[in-house]
Amino acid sequence: MSVETQKETLGFQTEVKQLLHLMIHSLYSNKEIFLRELISNASDAVDKLRFEALSKPELLEGGAELKIRVSFDKDAGTVTLEDNGIGMSREDVIAHLGTIAKSGTADFMKNLTGDQKKDSHLIGQFGVGFYSAFIVADKVDVFSRRAGLSAAEGVHWSSKGEGEFEVATVEKAERGTRIVLHLKKDETEFADGWRLRNVIKKYSDHIALPIELPKQVEAAEGEEKPAEVWETVNRASALWTRPRTEIKDEEYQEFYKHIGHDFENPLAWSHNKVEGKLEYNSLLYVPARAPFDLYQREAPRGLKLYVQRVFIMDQAESFLPLYLRFIKGVVDSNDLSLNVSREILQKDPIIDSMKSALTKRVLDMLEKLAKNEPEQYKGFWKNFGQVMKEGPAEDFANKEKIAGLLRFASTHDDSGEQSVSLADYLARAKEGQDKIYFLTGESYAQVKNSPHLEVFRKKGIEVLLLTDRIDEWLMSYLSDFDGKQFVDVARGDLDLGKLDSEEDKKAQEEVAKEKEGLVERLKGALGDAVSEVRVSHRLTDSPAILAIGEQDLGLQMRQILEASGQKVPDSKPIFEFNPSHPLIEKLDNEQSEDRFADFSHILFDQAALAAGDSLKDPAAYVRRLNKLLVELSA
Q: CA 497, CA 490: separation in Å to the nearest integer?
């Protein structure tokens, strides 16, 4: 054993302590996944060495045969996993094995409940990598040396999975990492060749480099013990390069868990080989659940990039647009140079062509999921719907295709679920209806009960109900679908076109003319609070509503701008009243101009509240209302 120097004891990051506590208390019934996680990490280390060796071949140190070895010692109760990949320096070891260096960590820790069943699900969503070793081991030793450093710069990391770990400098002749798991007394089943072989075949057959186990051979005559012989136990070929007909669903699922660091099976996948002007393989996956950093647009994202089966980049973000940042997968090109860099990726026309094709492939995959597995698609939409809504603004070329994948709540049912597609809506449209009607608001309860819907309910016209913060912004980029124009029912002068009969239109004109005097009185009373006053054709039960000007920002966009500290353009609502409502009739007959003004402002403020807006002067509203109540009770 080499002499250890510069030995120090360090404490784990708080998040790691909590995670290790959950690990050690056996959250997983399926404990064998520890081997999958450690092999996956070893595979990544080998990939990184391959990439760095493209420009620095000396890093291979004369050993270009890259592999992973798994061995065991039944008597000692240990399992050892060794790779000859990139390895780690002392600083790397402290950084990678003492902290969880992954975006979303804070959200992850915030979501832990203390309920083992729920927390195991969260950990599965987060991915645990190296720390899964403590599911089966009560002590873990790691010996590593980074390629390019001297043998004297090896490092030994050791921990019992409690509050701290030790790090020491040690002599290590070979580059790479060796992990020794000291198995818990009740986990010694893993110190067995047959058990390890089965786990490797089950979870890691797709790993594209040899995973070796010791082969049982008899000692030659005159030898005390047989020579150590290793055999490859996995297929050791890149899964994405194999024909689809040869790959089982289980293999696709395990490969996803490897590249996605996920514990759940994906919802769907698409495996494709492109030949001709461009040549590349792609394997794309839709996860079942959203990662914690989904809404951090600057978080690392993208596909694993290989060039001629040589790993180049872990998160190549140039192959898919930002709204598809949740997609996991691999792209392997024959047309890019091996020394491709991030700068080249951003400018290369080949990348643009591949991005366009891969984007279409993802959208086709989602269309297929929506059509064939509607319940699965519901789950997808709950997790990724708001991100998909970024699509029409970012991807004009696929705007219609993305719109077809969007889901909304509507007046068609009272569930409040975002389950209505635009195709569903149009299939139920009234005869002569040439518009798609929608209403945005702060909550489902608010929009469902909005006075703006009264005329639509009366005529049996379906309206889409949009309540996500992003919805008003989304609709500013969606002008039409399948030739039908979108219309905000709270905006401008409502025109129902052929859905209004000639008799309806004539009656509306007559009422508007009849109430011209009341319109002028209301304009005088409300003054600068409104841009216009008019008779409403939207109302059947409510006395008044506020409509938005055609070019004005709606409430959602105003709130988003205010929250981000941006200046909000000045705009005033349009006050519309229902001429047949008893309160409006009473208002019309009011002789006192003071009472008329108070009454008008009360109706205006009530309309603002019904629209989900806050009052500019709540005290004035309360004062006017109390004054009116006192007069009525006198």
A: 16
